[in-house]
Structures are given as structure tokens and as C-alpha cells.
Amino acid sequence: MKTGLLIRSMVSVVALPVMVAGVIPVWLLRTRGGAIGAGLSMPGNLIVAATGLTLGTLGLFLAVGAIRRFSSEGEGTLAPWDPPRKLVVRGTYRYVRNPMISGVLAILAGEAIFFGSLPVLKWCAFFAVLNAIYIPLVEEPMLVGRFGDDYLLYKKHVRRWVPRLTPWDPDIN
User: Fold this and answer.
1) What is the pLDDT of residue 117?
2) What is the rounded distance in angstroms from the CA atom of residue 25 to the CA atom of residue 124?
3) The CATH number of the domain where 34 resides is what?
4) Which residue of 36, 57, 59, 163 has the fewest C-beta atoms within 10 A of its own C-beta?
């Protein structure tokens, strides 16, 4: 990866997912309550804590994979101010159009469960609603403008939020 792209990617990651899934939840936990492994001291809550940890870890892998594809295949970043120059339709993008947002939402939900934090859960819900509005109204029209028929074909075959059961192959469809 070129040095300039690496720096741009790092800036966008710190500005967006680290802020959304790291800084804001930590601030909410410190100011609104929650504790590491909140339910671990109560019988039966080990499963709840493990569920939160598992969900957050899966979300992290999903988000990191999507971010790596944006820089390696898309030659850009996840940031709206420095988007990929090429349409990314490989990896997890073969199953769902927004794996990075899905990953960040899984991280937030996992944090809310693990820390037993209603404020983090509310932040997760707010972030989901925000993206449910922004993506179809702003991001998708920009993608149509940037990638034209290629994006429209992709959009026709791969759903925004609900993953396909089988991977979409752009070479076949």
C-alpha cells in the first residue's frame, strides 16, 4: 500500500469508526454508567458477557476487513471526503453492501451487552437510524453518480443490510 493511502486510511479510521465505536462509548460509560463485564458478578451473566464479547469481536473483524478492502481494492478510504476510486464488490461485499456499518453496529451492540450499558445501546440505535437515513438518501446516489451501471447492477443483486446466503459473483451476473 502506498504511504499516502496508508496515512489517509489511518486518519479516516481514527476519525470515524474509532470515534463511533471507541471514543463515544468510552465517554458514555464514564459519564452515564456501565462497567467492564457488568454482569460477571451475577450468576448466569457469564453467557451475557460472552455474547457481548463475541458480537463485538465479530463486528471488529467485519469492520477491519471492509476497511482493508476499501484501501487495497478501492484505492480510497471509508471516509466520505476520501472515498474509494474503484467499486469494491469482493469479500464480504459479495454478501452485503454495507459490511463496515454492520461491523460497527455489531461492535456497539457487543459493547452495550458486555458493559451492561443502556446509554451505549441507545447510541448504537441512534447510529443505526442515522445510517438508515444517510445511506439511501446521500451515499447511494453518490455511488450511482460515481460508478453508474456497475453500482446499479451491484445494488440490484446485493442487499443493503441483510446478507445474501450465497456470495454474488459480478462476473456471472
Assistant:
1) 86
2) 9
3) 1.20.120.1630
4) 36
